[in-house]
DNA sequence: TAAAAATGTGTTACCGTTAACATAGGGAGT
DNA sequence: ACTCCCTATGTTAACGGTAACACATTTTTA
């Protein structure tokens, strides 16, 4: 592989001038710039990352921590990831994924080593659950970190206002004339699930509607659990006229279950989701849902972590960026 | 962060002796070793990865490429990954995950840069599909690579014998007295799916049993597709007495569908899976399946890639390691 | 007991890049 | 014409480690 000296030798310029061209510094003549650029191309040169890291004392790479549960509810996570990747692509930063829960990733010492060895400069964490042990490590060691999809105290976060978004969904249903509304809830130890469930009951209370615990379906943010437990409700209980699912995957699981029992959507029951994953518009009927700008959240988080890393996280005050949500009206909710 | 010179200064030994202790070289006195080891601990020293990479011209890291489909069929992939991680943990190598299909990962140039910049030393790829574009790049550039869960020509692979494993499953069903057997097939462009389907028809032919195309259910290796399409078969067709699913996730999707139509397993229909994922033993009835030693496959692949990277892949001849499979008898198949 | 080998330790150069400083030449201002 | 400053370029010294070699000192071998 070609090095900076090869370019230097080939063009007759010193390595420093070559370095300047590569780094787009100024004070380089147009002539030098051209000649060196050509040589870079001809020799197919790319800067040696290790050498750069060594001298810069920075790795120019961001670690993305995901937990196993995320991998399961994959659309959600993939969309965010895409936003992160494409934003980072425009900067000088690389991305490394770490799957946590596996015994040897994200352990306290591992995490610190990554930072200390200048292996990575900062972390992005997608929707950690409430009691995630490594979050404490991240916090006490002041490691540059941005969280996506959860509003963790003391951290930089990119999140939606779950309360507001849930009110949006429920009041939409109410406006459509629904008075009996059920909830398909997410994983119990996740912030988003907790906040949405809380907002759900608050909203119903506020509008003086009955809160019927029978209509709380455990979905764990998963397709299968939502499906199975919806079936159970159908077979053993009575149905509300509308259902609010804390994510789209569960909404879809529920819809499939309803269909398999010949229950029409939205004819017999309406359903609204949360997220607006790709699948939402592809299923029958297309799913009405609360859109989270997942892709943009990924982008925003990427920008923020780069900012933190560049300015030094110690100097900046933690802040949480709240993204807007909106109802995407499709065909799974009908007016009563 | 402490460096090797800090240790040197603190202990009075030269940096070279310190380096020797850190790398467990011999020709170091017990006294020096102890004194330095203590200082290492006291100063919480860890070697700077960038400096090492620079001088060694190696990154000591392996890239794991997974495609988005893998993320979906997550148990399979996670088990393999765990094997990889835990094996690599015992060596001096790090692991970086790359999710392909995202536009900016695994593109030709990106892949080459990773290698050229000494950012990673070699790749591990989990079950790439037949026409995966980056496999060509990997091959033509002679990049150290090991494939898991597919037998790609010209590559180092760790795989099972899908033909043999499928025969095992089908002949098990036949031995139990089944004569009408259906297939839940996987994603069409994946080697494992293709091989298992081929073996399925061959085995039926060999035993003079009818091959009924109506009983071929498309499952795409996914829970939901298998579920939906099983429902379709139940509602619109007749059922065989047994079903062979090309992976467990589909078997489970199918079982859930059957159950929701009050069809008893194994009473009314038997079903056998493939993989032996964790969920297999947890569902009702516990799933009889062909066990793939996924964890061990991950381990074996990790060992192999390290071997390739250390000895230089040019010198070694490609080989595919075949792991054994076995039937795990549980309760989803009954004797007719 | 002298020569050879093994052991423990240090010195130096280098990996590829960038930061900081140095220098030479050309224009502008007075 | 003389200083002053800007522009383009080069030189040197790091960054933190390892390899190769050198050199005592001790141990083994003949």
Characteristic terms for this protein:
alpha/beta, Rossmann fold, DNA-binding, 12 strands, 6-stranded mixed sheet, 16% strand, 336 residues, 3 domains, elongated, homodimer, 434 Repressor (Amino-terminal Domain), 6-stranded parallel sheet
Structure write-up:
The structure is a homodimer. With about 325 residues, chain A is α/β, with parallel strands linked by helices. Chain A folds into 3 domains: about 5-45, 434 Repressor (Amino-terminal Domain) (Orthogonal Bundle), CATH 1.10.260; about 60-160 and about 295-325, Response regulator (Rossmann fold, 3-Layer(aba) Sandwich); about 160-290, Response regulator (Rossmann fold), CATH 3.40.50.2300. Chain A is built from 14 helices and 12 strands. In chain A, the strands form 2 sheets. In chain A, strands 2-1-3-4-5-11 form a 6-stranded parallel beta sheet. In chain A, α6 crosses α14 (about 295-310), α9 packs across α10 and α11 (about 225-235) crosses α12. The model of chain A has no long low-confidence stretch (mean pLDDT about 90).
**Might you state the CATH topology name of the largest domain in chain A?**
Rossmann fold
Number of strands of chain A: 12
Seen as an oligomer or otherwise, the chain set is homodimer
Terminal CA distance of chain A: 69 Å
Give the mean pLDDT of chain A. Answer: 90
* Count of discrete alpha- or pi-helical segments spanning 4 or more residues of chain A: 14
CATH architecture of the largest domain in chain A: 3-Layer(aba) Sandwich
Neighbour order of strands in the largest sheet of chain A = 2-1-3-4-5-11
Give a short account of the largest sheet of chain A.
6 strands, parallel
> What is the approximate shape of chain A?
elongated
Portion of residues in beta strands of chain A equals: 15-25%
Largest interface: A-B, 44 and 45 residues
What's the CATH class label of the largest domain in chain A? Alpha Beta
Percent of residues in helices of chain A: 40-55%
User: Which segments of chain A are poorly predicted (pLDDT under 50) over 5 or more consecutive residues?
Assistant: none
């Amino acid at each position: 592989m070609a090095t900076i000296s090869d370019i230097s030798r080939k063009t007759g310029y010193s390595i420093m001038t070559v370095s300047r061209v590569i780094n787009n510094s100024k004070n380089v003549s147009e002539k030098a710039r051209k000649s060196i650029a050509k040589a870079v191309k001809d020799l197919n040169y790319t800067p040696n990352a290790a050498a750069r890291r060594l001298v810069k004392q920075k790795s120019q790479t961001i670690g993305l921590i995901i937990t196993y549960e995320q991998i399961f509810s994959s659309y959600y996570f993939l969309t965010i990831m895409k936003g992160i990747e494409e934003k980072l692509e425009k900067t000088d930063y690389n991305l490394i994924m770490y799957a946590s829960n596996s015994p040897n990733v994200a352990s306290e010492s591992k995490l610190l080593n990554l930072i200390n060895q200048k292996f990575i400069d900062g972390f992005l964490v997608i929707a950690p659950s409430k009691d995630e042990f490594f979050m404490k490590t991240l916090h006490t060691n002041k490691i540059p970190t941005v969280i996506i999809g959860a509003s963790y105290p003391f951290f930089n976060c990119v999140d939606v206002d779950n309360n507001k978004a849930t009110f949006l969904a429920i009041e939409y249903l109410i406006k459509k004339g629904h008075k009996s509304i059920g909830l398909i809830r997410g994983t119990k130890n996740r912030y988003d699930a907790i906040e949405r469930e809380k907002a759900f009951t608050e909203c119903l209370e506020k509008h003086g509607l009955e809160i019927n615990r029978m209509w709380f379906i455990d979905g764990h943010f998963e397709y299968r659990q939502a499906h199975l437990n919806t079936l159970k409700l159908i077979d053993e209980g009575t149905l509300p006229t509308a259902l609010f699912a804390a994510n789209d995957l569960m909404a879809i699981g529920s819809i499939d279950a309803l269909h398999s029992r010949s229950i029409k959507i939205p004819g017999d029951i309406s359903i609204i989701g949360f997220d607006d994953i790709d699948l939402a518009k592809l299923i029958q009927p297309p799913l009405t849902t609360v859109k989270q700008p997942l892709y943009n959240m990924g982008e925003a988080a990427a920008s923020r972590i780069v900012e933190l890393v560049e300015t030094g996280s110690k100097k900046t005050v933690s802040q949480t960026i709240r993204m807007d949500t909106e109802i995407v009206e499709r065909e799974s909710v009908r007016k009563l």
